[in-house]
Every structure is written in C-alpha cells, then in structure tokens.
Amino acid sequence: MEQKVAIVSYGLLNYRGPNEIGRWNDEATFLVAREALERVGLKRDDIDAVVIGTMDGLDGITISNGLLVPAAGAYKKDSIRIENSGLHCVISAMASILCGSAEIVMVGSSDTIEMDFGYVTNSNQDPFFRGALGFNARQSYGLLAMDYLRKTEAAEADFAKVAAKNYQCGSRNRFAHVQTAYSEEEVMASPLVSWPLRRLEISSLSNGAGALILASERKARELTDSPVWITGIAAASNSYLGSWSELSGQKALKKAAARAYQTAGLKSPREELDFMEIFNPFSPFELMACEALGVCPDGKGCQLLRDGVIYPEGSLPVNLSGGSLCTNGPNSSGLFRIIHAVKLLQNETEEMKLPNARRGLVHDGDIGIGAVGGDSHAVMILEKEA
Question: How far apart are CA 377 and CA 83, in angstroms?
C-alpha cells in the first residue's frame, strides 16, 4: 500500500466463561479502551473515530452499540458499528485513515452477556428455506467436517490432534479462556455433538473484551518505536444461496487471502509467513483454512499437521494463542487474535515467543454464526518495523 497504517496500541481483558467477567459490555469496553490509550499516552480527545464490533443478537439488547461507542471514547467523534468480525472493523478503521478523515481510530468489542447460541445461530441459518427447522451452527460444523473427511485423506484422529495442539497452546496463554491442556485422547473421549465432531473439537463461548488503536504513518511514528504495520488486508463473502461446493471449498476465504497477499507483495505465503492466527470454531476448520490460505495444496491440510509444520515448534506455527477452541468471544475474539499477533511481533508474549518473527497472518470471519451460507472472511498481513 502506498500509504501506511499501523496498529500502535491495544487493550485486552483476560477471557473467561459466560457470566464470569462480572461486568456489562460497556464497562468491559471502557477498560480495554482506556488501557489502549494509556499504553501510548493518548487521551480520549486524541481519537478521531471509533469502530465497534457488536451484534444485538449476541448482546441481549437492541442497538447495543449505543452503549459501547461512548465507552470506547466516541463522544463527539465519528463512529460506526460493524456486525461482522474484528478484522472487518479494522478494514473500516483503515478506510477512515486512508481517506484522510481520521489519523487515530479506536477499534473495540466485548462479550459479557450469556446468550442462547443454538437459538441465535438457528435464526442465522435461514431454516425455512435452506435447512431443517432447528438447524444451527454446530450442526453445520458437523456437515463441513463430514464433507472434509469424504474429500481428503484426513481422519477423525487428525481433528483431535488439531484440538489438542490448540489446547496445549492455550494452556500457556494467561489471557485465554480455556487453559486446560487437553490431550488427544481426552478430546477423542469427549461426547459427540454433531458427527464427526466431539465437544472438545467445537469452541465454547467466551466472555472478554479487546481494543486496538490504529494510526496513520505520521502519527504512528510519533506514538511508538514499535508500530506493527498492516501491509495487506482484504475481505470476501460467499453467496448466501451458493452451491455446496462453493461453501465447503471456502471460496470467499481463498479470494480474501489472494487479495491480501497481492497487497502485501507475498508470492509464497508458506515461506514468507512466520505464523498464522486462524479463526477455527471447530478443529478441522484449521486444516481447511490452511488450504484456502494457500500454504498447502487443497486436501493436504492434514499433511501439514502430520509433518508438524503448524505446531509451535514447526516452520509455520498456527494458533499459538490457542485459537478459537480456547477463546471464542462471538463479537470480540477477532481482536483477541489480532492482539496476540501484535504481541508476537513485538516479542511481548510471556508464555511463548517467536523472537525472529517478522510477518504474520490473522484470519477472521463470521462462520461462527452462519457456517453454510453468506459467511464472510477477512485476512490481514501484519509486519513489524524493520
């Protein structure tokens, strides 16, 4: 990109289970926004705009952003609400900076309210026209996992290995919700939810909050000696009434990745990336995403796993944060993964370090709500200051 935008600061709450945070969404959002401001010596008046990621169905209240934008510092500021994912919020924030209407933008999101995930995701699956009544996201995960077994060499044991890898990473991340290092055997022994997926292969719901501050190049260099530059970013959506091959083939994720790589100047992501943080609401999606992101051929995601490539000690670690299996705030976990990526690049992670990491990828999407129609994906490339 000709103009440069950087992430200069962040705020993060430790994630916990539903109703364990003990704060309303606006209180949690205020805390992380204040932390992000204080980290680089900014005040509320220094913010030019605020972008909030929230969805009424996930917050238990209508027009929930009306509570959250003031908490993030939007008094007398431009503000926008994105009902999608953290990375889509970042795209909106970047647009404000690149068009010249803002130089410093706050991006925030939170999850502190317990909700009925089955009911909410059922309403997003269009049960009257595309599926049986009662169909929800977890059942759609099972269909995608079953299709992946049918089309590739993957086995159920591979799904358990992916989950165990994520849980091992999450156990070392003090901000993660699930910090239990479940073994492969424990994952396989957990109850079936939607064949072939077991309970420990599907993410539970997490409560927490995160905030980012984005800045123009001029402001970024004033605020910090260690900006993390956004060198590529893109989003794409599947057709709502698309074919099964389009949906199961992750066509939208492939499009988003190709555009992000082009902008960042990446020719060979397998060799040029140092790590990836992938949204994986069910364990095999991590393998499916690796294929769609072009780090291995189609159908060969399980080989990356078996060869140890995506393990913490591998050449391309995936989900060192623990991924969505360990932290899954429906509104805010995209920001959680972005923040973890920033910390890895700035060598600030206490539990796990990649001292030579220079470039990382973060993926986000709304597949956690509607997995078989109209789902949207976003891909971002982050690079540390040379």
Answer: 13
DSSP 8-class letter at 24: -
DSSP element (H, E) containing 152 = none
pLDDT (0 to 100) of residue 134: 62
Residue in the structure block whose two tokens are 């492969």: 184
Q: Are 251 and 238 in contact (CB under 8 A)?
A: yes
Q: Which backbone phi and psi does 214 adopt, to 5 degrees?
A: -105, 150
> Tokens at residue 207, please?
């409560």
Mean local confidence (pLDDT), 64-92: 88
Domains of the chain: 5-115+205-223 (3.40.47.10), 124-204+231-386 (3.40.47.10)
pLDDT digits (tens, 9 = 90+) for 147-168: 999 999 999 999 999 999 999 9
Cα–chain center distance at 342: 13
- The answer to whether 251 touches 375, Cβ cutoff 8 Å, is no
Q: Is the pLDDT of residue 172 over 80?
A: yes
Q: Following CA atoms 46, 51, 56, 59 in sequence, which dihedral angle do they give, to the nearest 10 degrees?
A: -60
